[in-house]
Write the structure tokens for this entry.
Amino acid sequence: MAKVNEIYGGQAVIEGVMMGGPTTSVTAIRRKDGTVEFFEVKRHLDSKWKRLKRVPLIRGIIGILESSVLGSKHLNFASEKYDKLPEEDINIEVEGKSKWGMILGLSVLAILSFLFGKFIFTLIPAIAADALSHYFPGFGMQILIEGLLKILLLLGYIYFIALTPLMKRVFQYHGAEHMVINAFENGQPLTVASVREQTRLHYRCGSSFILFTAVISVFLYLFVPLHPLSVRLLTRIALIPVDLGISYEVLRATNAVRNVPFLKVLGYPGLWLQLLTTKLPDDDQIEIAILAFNEMRKREKMNAELTNQSSVS
């Protein structure tokens, strides 16, 4: 296996794939007429936020919020373009404050959507477990039932959305994204035939992270009160940042030991969840993922050259 220092990530979008590097992220989508269109969002973090991204526990929270904002922009681009012909595009020039207002609004909406979803998957199991306290009394049993309900809610949600044709294709693009990154990290050529031989599972996947948050939260709940219900719900909300921070560190750790015998099994639960969140892609979908990855790396190189020129001048 070739030694690869660069670490890249990505996400699936409607009829496309986003690939991200240290300084930029690029989406490639296939339009209605079969043409491919790219969309770039550069990463802009000031020195203060960059320093925070190096602090354990805190860096996970910063990374999740940043990914939510960036991801929403790529999802918005794909959803607006994928089912239209290029000639149907309406060019609207948005300048000055109105443009920044639109970007800010989208960023805030992305963060609020993430937090809303997190609240739903956190509070519903707590309320349901409390309602079942007559049948499952006791502190330990209540925590266990709440954790099981949270995992079942997560699995059920993923299973049912995967039944829709649109999400099935998104999950296929998710698989293509993983396969391309696996090919790159394994030192294999980025061709459709070579990528096809790679696994669609990856240790750094956000699906694994989501599962880790569900499991780790159970252990965190052991240290806070269970009653009354209002206190139970408030402590669950208060622990969300702690849960996110620890889960991110666990995700990094499982990725670091993925080639170590015996220790690599720590990441298996997240990989098993990816059997639901990824599907085997067709050749066209793999091609899109390859194009997105290559375009992202090309623009990363261009950004590095511009930075070097600026520092010299």
Observations:
- Residues 96-131 form the longest helix (36 residues).
- Residues 9-86+94-300 form one domain.
